[in-house]
């Protein structure tokens, strides 16, 4: 359960992932939210400039309103994990689409050699979950849900997911 209040987001029953710093505090104050990303599935926010925290997709309109009321930037950063996980979608991509995805990852802090290392590391997890394969989107939330999650693996995945994150500057436009 997630409760959106005027100046904070509460997780009364704890957060999805026990490895998260949010699971202990069960709350996120607006002053600790760097950005909100409605482009991820489910929607997410950046907490304390170091962690991607996921919210419920059913709350997308409330999340957007919360961001506007609290002047929290709404950014649509590319979801790095969505492109890392593309080979595990139940979809066939053309060669040009694969090349473009690798180019986008490179522009967002993931070299082709690192991409190969990451994919080798996650391939077993992703293939073991073939029964629930998605054909349009597999992001960080999916990987975290599917893997045998340790604290080390959680923070490793966060670091990768935030490679293209840049701390919001004061002149950022609020949506």
User: What is the number of beta strands?
Assistant: 6
* Biggest sheet details: 3 strands, antiparallel
What share of the residues does DSSP label as strand, in percent?
A: 5-15%
Q: What count of helical segments does DSSP give? A: 7
The N- to C-terminal Cα distance equals 26 Å
Neighbour order of strands in the largest sheet: 1-2-3
Secondary structural class? alpha+beta
Q: Percent range for helical residues? A: 25-40%
| Shape by Cα distribution | globular
Written account of the structure:
By secondary structure, this protein is α+β, with helices and mostly antiparallel strands. The chain contains seven helices and six strands, in the order ββαββββαααααα. The protein has helices at 22-25, 60-69, 80-84, 95-107, 112-128, 140-146, 151-161; strands at 3-4, 8-10, 27-29, 33-37, 44-47, 51-54. A hairpin with a 6-residue loop joins strand 4 (33-37) and strand 5. Residues 168-175 have low confidence and may be disordered.
């Amino acid at each position: 359960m997630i409760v959106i209040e005027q100046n904070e987001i509460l997780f009364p029953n704890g957060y999805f992932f026990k490895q998260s710093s949010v699971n202990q505090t069960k709350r996120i104050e607006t002053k600790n939210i760097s950005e909100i990303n409605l482009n991820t599935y489910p929607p997410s926010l950046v907490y304390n400039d170091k962690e991607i925290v996921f919210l419920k997709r059913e709350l997308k309109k409330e999340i957007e309103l919360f961001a506007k009321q609290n002047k929290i930037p709404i950014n649509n950063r590319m979801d790095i994990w969505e492109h890392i996980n593309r080979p595990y979608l139940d979809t066939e991509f053309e060669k040009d689409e694969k090349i473009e995805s690798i180019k986008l990852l490179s522009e967002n802090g993931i070299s082709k050699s690192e991409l190969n290392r990451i994919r080798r590391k996650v391939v077993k997890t992703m293939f073991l979950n073939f029964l629930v394969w998605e054909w349009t989107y597999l992001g960080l939330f999916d990987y975290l849900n599917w893997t045998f999650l340790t604290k080390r693996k959680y923070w490793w995945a966060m670091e990768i997911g935030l490679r293209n994150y840049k701390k919001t500057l004061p002149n950022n436009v609020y949506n």
